[in-house]
# Entry
Amino acid sequence: MRFFGLKTVLLFSFAVVFLTFAGNLAKVQSQPSNSEISTVQFVPPSGSVAHPGRRQSGASRGGQCPAVDEPLTALVPATKRTLDKNSSPLNTYQSAGGLTVANYPSLWFYNPYPLTSKAPLEFVLEDEQGNYIYKTSFTASGTPPGILRVGLPSTAEPLAIGKMYHWYFLVNCTPDAPISVDGWIQRVATTANSSQSEQETPQQQIVDYATKGIWYDALTILAEQRLANPKDALINQSWTSLLRSIGLDAIANEPLGRCCTTETKVGEARKKNDNQISHNQLPTKTKFAQ
# Structure
């Protein structure tokens, strides 16, 4: 009797040890390897954002912005598309933008110009019908050129699942002719797998979002990791790899700034202000086939 009791205890202890080991092994196996992290690639989702946009600006029309090596750039994927089945250059356009699962996402831009009170930056977010959702402008004198973050504040209207939003980012070197980039963002619902992302490590989240085409979230998590660990070689390799996968390796080594996560009154987006842009100063919207 005592033998059977001891046998039961041993079997139970073995089962506990085995299940614990199996659970830990599963966790280890689910962790992305250093190779996967350092070579993270963005995989465009099927049916990705096809609305016209402009990832990089042209030259200053007024000539008041200084000459730069790399233009004002939105850190988003860009794809050349056609308006119809004809492949004529006249029927092509560039789409720029991506997906997010966040209701208050962050967007990232490379600004090649020193920030001054005479050249304020401006961010505008509209819905698909052209109605203002959020608008803010900011200056930070003495801030050097670099990659800046613009976060949609919690006081703003959250992004709705399934809806498309058009954003603009402008540098007002010439008030009547700002240099600008524009693109799109769409919030999508979380899947059964992505809803578990809160339990994942940042490295797992980056790989998970990037391979599932959730651009804005993959970029933001990786940027936050780079800001917190600027000398981490693995994170820096991941950053370069992710930007290279969308053709932006030329700005991969530009510094990340902390100046421009703003919390501006959203109500101001619907008020007229002589110091802010009007609709006719925004880039012309291109008509395209649905």
